[in-house]
Design brief:
459 residues, Potassium Channel Kv1.1, Chain A, Serine Threonine Protein Phosphatase 5, Tetratricopeptide repeat, Jelly Rolls, 3 domains, BTB/POZ_dom, BACK, BTB domain containing 3, cytoplasm, ubl conjugation pathway
Length: 459
């Protein structure tokens, strides 16, 4: 599963020592030369040669579950220097004198990754082994390797894997990773809820997500995601995938879905016809929508607060002049970077300076030429100098210290407001935005003036 969640890591360049380590990863080698120590000038390099090597091995590990084990050699002294658990195992008061130790709960690839760190002082993480390596590093108290695993996970974190990693971060007691997962889930809730990984979470994590006050999603999306999870849970429990069994595996978690806060159309055409609700529940919720005297409900009836969007305004003033600003299908564009991870939800745009008017806007967000988000929508301007929001379908995750390109192609009244006295740096709460001109801009927008006066974001 992890291989599907994370991108594949590029192979590292190899030196002679690294080539020997790679051989050792594949098979247990013994050194043929009698003076091999003289080939390597440092103790680190000599220890690295001993990694997964039968030479002088005084302990062996049988790693992995039955049917998938691998026998790996080890050297007690090296292992004890690298891990307090191994030190206690081999040299403590209750030390065991076993030549072979069985470790059924750790994957062989993860155990090898931990040994490589202990022997070679190298961290070699992959998408398909990082979670198992974190488990091994936690079990054997190798904190620097555990921290590297968490950093790898944070870097790879996205809406597609945030729910799975939330579950794992709680299991591994990693509060920083947990907080990062919540940031992604809150801001990109609908993407996270629709991901395949959401169906893989445990019941406790499901309930924590359904309780989330700041979940930035329509309640019908939450409801549909819960049903998808229930179907997967039925399969895990080897139950027939029926409506009754879906309701059974959801249990009391179904009441955490804020069904009374759905739009009436969403309820009538979705939840009410799903079969998951009882007839009494369906009837009471219809009365909740329509009756003056509302019935008591077991469902939470207060809407979620969601996230409050912030706005980065990059101009100090705006103006308009006759025939000054024209569109005609040309692109207005600006580049920006942030110092902290944020989620761009949309742009604030100017409108007509000659009374009310409707605009068609194609907005786009790119990084190094790759489109990360785009949308085509219309907005209505009232003739004021206010900005008017245009949203992406889903918020786009923006990494720090990298320039992104924000673009818009407008079609509408050509006499519009435009920004002046633009700033190259803007502080918005705890986030600093930097702006620079974009070569994609063919309609005059730049740092000093033009369109795209606001970036709307979550942080």
């Amino acid at each position: 599963m992890a291989a599907e969640i994370f991108p594949t890591k590029k192979p590292a360049s190899t030196s002679s020592v690294q080539q020997f380590q790679q051989q050792n990863l594949n098979n247990n080698n013994t050194i043929q030369t009698t003076n091999w120590q003289g080939l390597y000038p440092t103790i680190r390099e000599r220890n690295a040669v001993m990694f997964n090597n039968e030479l002088m091995a005084d302990v062996h590990f049988v790693v992995g579950p039955p049917g998938g084990t691998q026998r790996l050699p080890g050297h007690k002294y090296v292992l004890a220097v690298g891990s307090s658990v191994f030190h206690a195992m081999f040299y403590g008061e209750l030390a065991e004198d076993n030549d072979e130790i069985r470790i059924p709960d750790v994957e062989p690839a993860a155990f090898l990754a931990m040994l490589k760190y202990i022997y070679c002082d190298e961290i070699d993480l992959g998408a398909d082994t990082v979670l198992a390596t974190l488990y091994a590093a936690k079990k054997y108290i190798v904190p620097h390797l555990a921290r590297a695993c968490v950093n790898f996970l944070e870097t790879s974190l996205s809406a597609k894997n945030a729910c799975v990693l939330l579950s794992q971060s709680c299991l591994f007691e990693e509060p920083d990773l947990t907080q990062r997962c919540w940031e992604v889930i809150d801001a990109q809730a609908e993407l996270a809820l629709k991901s395949e990984g959401f169906c893989d979470i445990d019941t406790q994590t499901l309930e924590s997500i359904l309780r989330r006050e700041t979940l930035n999603a329509k309640e019908i999306v939450v409801f549909e995601a819960a049903l998808n999870w229930a179907e997967a849970e039925c399969q895990r429990q080897e139950l027939a995938v029926t409506i009754d069994n879906k309701r059974k595996v959801l249990g009391k978690a179904v009441y955490l879905i804020r069904i009374p806060t759905m739009a009436l159309d969403d309820f009538a055409n979705g939840a009410a016809q799903s079969g998951v609700l009882t007839l009494n529940e369906t009837n009471d919720i219809f009365l909740w929508y329509t009756a003056a005297k509302k019935p008591e409900l077991q469902f939470v009836s207060k809407p979620r607060k969601g996230l409050v969007p912030q706005r980065c305004h990059r101009f100090q003033s705006c103006a308009y002049r006759s025939n000054q600003w024209r569109y005609r299908g040309r692109c207005d564009s600006i580049q920006f970077a942030v110092d902290k991870r944020v989620f761009i939800a949309g742009f604030g745009l100017y409108g007509s300076s000659c009374g009310s008017a409707e605009y068609s806007a194609k907005i786009e967000l790119k990084r190094q030429g790759v489109i990360l988000g785009q949308n085509l929508s219309k907005y209505f301007s009232d003739g004021s100098s206010n900005t008017f929001p245009v949203w992406f379908e889903y918020p786009v995750q923006i990494e720090p210290d990298t320039f992104y390109t924000a673009s818009v192609v407008l079609d509408g009244n050509e006499l519009s407001y435009f920004g002046q006295e633009g700033m190259t740096e803007v502080q918005c709460g705890k986030v600093t935005f930097q702006f620079q001109c974009s070569s994609d801009s063919t309609n005059g927008t730049g740092v000093q003036g033009g369109q795209i006066p606001e970036l709307i974001f979550y942080a």
